[in-house]
Amino acid sequence: MTKITDVRAKTPDELNSMLLDLRKEQFNLRFQRATGQLEAVSRIRAVRRDIARVKTILAERTRSAAKA
Fold first, then answer.
1. What's a single GO MF annotation on this record (predicted)?
2. In three state form, how does the secondary structure of the chain look?
């Protein structure tokens, strides 16, 4: 689980690459769950929340850029 301060410190390019990595991990976790190989079930929730954090920060930055 990443902290919000760590996410806010990243550039938009880093956030986009982080989002891509998290989505790949989410896909892999869903695939593992479907095949019965998933051991850390709580990781699905953590990844989903990390994706939400990154998307929230990206949206905040686009809104602030639009105002300026």
1. structural constituent of ribosome
2. CCCHHHHHCCCHHHHHHHHHHHHHHHHHHHHHHHHCCCCCCHHHHHHHHHHHHHHHHHHHHHHHHHHC
Tokens of 47: 């990844």
Task: Indicate the pTM of the whole model.
Answer: 0.91
Residue of 50, 38, 37, 45 whose CA lies nearest to 2: 50
CA distances from 34 to 6, 23, 28, 30, 37 (A): 32, 17, 10, 6, 8
Domains and CATH numbers, the chain: 4-67 (1.10.287.310)
Could you read off the pLDDT of 39-54 as tens digits, one per residue? Answer: 999 999 999 999 999 9
